[in-house]
Design goal:
By secondary structure, the chain is an alpha/beta fold. 18% of the residues lie in helices and 23% in strands. The chain folds into two domains: 36 residues; 286 residues, Rossmann fold (3-Layer(aba) Sandwich), CATH 3.40.50. The protein has an eight-stranded mixed β-sheet, with helices on both faces. The longest helix is centred in the N-terminal third of the chain and has 15 residues. It comes from Digitaria exilis. InterPro entries: Metacaspase (IPR050452), Pept_C14_caspase (IPR011600). Belongs to the peptidase C14B family.
């Protein structure tokens, strides 16, 4: 798989921040600069239409059940995240999320797709095209009673909004392993791919461990801790009136607030690490009883984060930490300071049970 060179039909623009020349791929609305790591939006006039595409999910046509998951972990090794070093947690995050889903919530292992940048299968690498195909596979043909999970551990980005659908004026994005060649995946696309197709009776839970990820699914309602310590819903419906919800299903995103000042904390070469956001989620779910409410889950996550992780995976009860037992540390590479919950609909977080 070739990540270099200038693709056929591409054009060039200048980075908004450092003025470097950037290659624009057909169909992309934003591009990440390899020199300063910042994201520049592609103006409508500079966008190149995509050619007609074939089936989006062909590489993932295998067993499907009512419980399906896509887990993505990107270390950005081999210089793919220039000037920032390699993350030493995302692949461990994916392994522990898979164990959590399969061992506690009964997800069939063959229905859990893992995209990590240490795999040999080119269709299991977390490239932009593969992530897009996996998202479409996740929701394709969804029906009443389906429980879907999307997990991302890696780097996020932020770019100025150009269509007036963001309350804070910025779009959030996730960076695939080829972000410098293909650009990040904007929240508009993520919402269109895995939120809007959800029909009545379908549940989607997303857990995102990345900087600038608080509203990366573009869901209309955000629940976070206020200054007085109480969880409070905020209306994040677009000022334009555009609908960002589902087609009758329910979507929930568990992510985190970060101010962007401390995005990365790379651990020493000899120490395998785990992401603080994923760690707090997995540890809170494993330590809480079945039927825990969303409110109690969020409070547990917040306590674990404020205690600096509360220890490694060694102190988990059960099999969840099994893939990475040993002397491991928690790395807050996303700079997350507080957990957030966003949703396609508001609900009582202290009464509604958390169920996957």
């Amino acid at each position: 798989m070739n990540f270099g060179g200038r693709p056929h039909g591409a054009s060039t623009i200048r980075c908004k921040y450092c003025r470097s020349s950037l290659t624009v791929i057909p169909g992309e609305r934003a591009i990440q600069c390899s020199q300063c790591n910042c994201v520049t939006r592609v103006r409508r006039a500079d966008r190149i239409p995509l050619p007609p595409m074939g089936p989006m999910t062909a590489p993932f046509l295998h067993a499907r059940s009512k419980k399906r998951a896509v887990l993505i972990g990107i270390t950005y090794a081999s210089g793919m995240r220039r000037g920032c070093g390699e993350l030493r947690g995302p692949i461990n995050d994916v392994k522990c999320m898979r164990n959590l889903l399969c061992n506690r919530f009964g997800f069939p292992s063959e229905c859990v797709i893992m995209l990590t940048d240490d795999q040999r299968d080119p269709f299991r690498l977390p490239t932009k095209d593969n992530i897009r195909m996996a998202m479409h596979w996740l929701v394709q043909g969804c029906s009443y009673g389906d429980s879907l999970v999307f997990h991302f551990s890696g780097i996020g980005a932020q770019v100025a909004d150009d269509d007036g659908d963001e309350v804070d004026g910025y779009d959030e994005a996730l960076c695939p392993m080829d972000a410098f060649q293909r650009g990040p995946i904007l929240d508009d696309e993520i919402n269109e791919a895995i939120v809007r197709p959800l029909v009545r009776g379908v549940r989607l839970h997303a857990v995102v461990d990345a900087c600038y990820s608080a509203t990366v699914l573009d869901l209309p309602f955000l629940c976070r801790v206020s200054k007085n310590g109480y969880w409070r819903w905020e209306d994040h419906r677009p000022p334009t009136g555009a609908w960002k919800g589902t087609s009758g299903g329910h979507a929930v995103l568990i992510s985190g607030y970060s101010d962007g000042n401390k995005n990365f904390a790379v651990m020493p070469e000899a120490v395998a690490s785990v992401g603080a956001m994923t760690h707090s989620f997995v540890r809170a779910v494993e330590c809480e009883p079945y039927g825990v409410t969303y409110g109690r889950l969020l409070n547990s996550m917040r306590t674990i984060m404020h205690k600096g992780g509360g220890g490694g995976y060694d102190d988990l009860q059960g099999p969840i930490g099994a893939p990475i037992m040993g002397n491991h540390q928690v790395a807050n590479f996303s700079g997350v300071q507080e957990p957030n919950l966003s949703s396609s609909e508001m609900f009582d977080i202290y009464r509604k049970p958390f169920v996957l």
